[in-house]
Amino acid sequence: MNIALSAIQRDTSIQTRAETNMETVNSYAEAMTEGAEFPPVVLFGTKDKCWIGDGWHRVMAAEQIGAMDIPAEVRAGGRVDALKYALGANAVHGQRRTNADKRRCVEIAVKEFPKLSSRSIAEMCGVSNDFVSRFRQVSSNDTPATRTDTLGRQQPATRRTSKPATPEEEEAMYFEKEDKERNQADTGNAKQKPIKRGRPCNGMQFARMAVLDLEQITDDDTERVEAFEFVKEWINENYESKNTEND
């Protein structure tokens, strides 16, 4: 379906990119004017009011060419659901994330879901558990790492001193090592077997979102055990039925 651009909320607090890449926006806009078809943006809410889970650059490109609406997949939920989806969406597809993008994701997740474990946030954001733990230690004084300027861009919350901040230096080195290891692993896998192209896989994204919701159940919730048993039964029934069909 097509959704009116006026119905899409521009809530920059759930924009998981550290900054908008205008080169990408301009490229998309040019392609749109030439008739190129893009995947539908993923929105959460209703056709009258919704939030962006995936597709900020496409929405901005559509606005740039004066479009009134844009192809979209509208899912049930609201701002928080869009945020949960957005935190991991760019980790598996789209423009490659920068170190600043990864830090931005973790910063938002820690702020929005402070009770979640570092491991859950790491899985949701597509980063390592070690990085989330280290980020929490550095940010334990509750000083925000970034601020939003008048143009909606993410900027450092404080000015750098003449001496570079050690956490940022360690972070850059960590991500450089992480990216190198990932690239080596991808290269190794590519040599072992050809890459199969097909429909996008969203299974893990939904699984992470489900776990995120379950971790909101507190230990003193009187329905906690019943809730987990219900989920366990559902998984067993569906998993077994799928296996039976495959056999």
Task: Set out the fold topology.
Elements: E1 2-4, E2 8-9, H1 22-33, E3 41-45, E4 50-54, H2 56-64, E5 69-75, H3 79-92, H4 99-112, H5 118-125, H6 129-138, E6 146-148, E7 154-156, H7 166-192, H8 203-214, H9 224-246
Parallel strand pairs: 2-4, 3-5
Antiparallel strand pairs: 1-5, 3-4, 6-7
Helix pairs in contact: 1-2, 3-8, 4-5, 5-6, 5-8
Summarize the structure.
By secondary structure, the chain is α/β, with parallel strands linked by helices. Helix content is 52%, strand content 11%. It contains 9 helices and 7 strands.
Summarize the structure in words:
With 247 residues, the protein is α/β, with parallel strands linked by helices. It folds into two domains: 2-192, Conserved hypothetical protein from pyrococcus furiosus pfu- 392566-001, ParB domain, CATH 3.90.1530; 203-246. Helices cover 52% and strands 11% of the residues. It has nine helices and seven strands; from the N terminus they run ββαββαβααααββααα. The protein has helices at residues 22-33, 56-64, 79-92, 99-112, 118-125, 129-138, 166-192, 203-214, 224-246, and strands at 2-4, 8-9, 41-45, 50-54, 69-75, 146-148, 154-156. The strands form two sheets. A five-stranded mixed β-sheet has the order 1-5-3-4-2. The protein has a two-stranded antiparallel ribbon with strand order 6-7. β6 (146-148) and β7 (154-156) form a beta hairpin. α3 (79-92) crosses α8, α4 crosses α5 and α5 runs antiparallel to α8.
